[in-house]
Specification:
Helix content is about 20%, strand content about 45%. The protein is α+β, with helices and mostly antiparallel strands and about 120 residues long. Strands 2-1-5-6-7-4-3 form a 7-stranded antiparallel β-sheet. It is globular.
Length: about 120
């Protein structure tokens, strides 16, 4: 069964349980993901472009949200990409718990301009 993450709103399909998180004593966290290139060969170019351009992005998954994320390293073995990431802020709230925040963000509806 496939799972997904979103990078700046673009859906990336990964194989279930191929995400691991490591917390640091500092404010950041490290994440590792594994992407199957046999099923999604376009991800090779996508992730190498993010890596080479030192692009900072937000990553959203069902069980967490990582803000200010950079790719630390990419391991490529012709079938899989193993990607190590570092994020500035990691929110471990489940997607169902973040639902209201996401809806408000999509509607551009925050506390300052809330219409009742």
């Amino acid at each position: 069964m496939n799972d997904w993450i979103k990078i700046n709103g673009e859906t990336i399909f990964i194989e279930e349980s191929n995400v691991s998180v490591q917390f640091s004593t500092m404010a950041h966290a490290s994440l590792d993901i594994r992407v199957n290139l046999n099923n999604y060969p376009q991800y090779l170019t996508y992730f190498f472009n993010l890596f080479q351009n030192h692009s900072k992005f937000d990553l959203v998954a069902k069980k967490f949200e990582a803000k200010g994320t950079l790719i630390k390293s990419v391991d490529y073995d012709l079938e899989f990409l193993n990607i190590s990431l570092r994020c500035d802020i990691l929110n471990l709230s489940d997607l169902s718990e973040r639902r209201d925040e996401i809806i408000d963000s999509l509607l551009n509806n925050n506390d300052k301009n809330n219409i009742i």
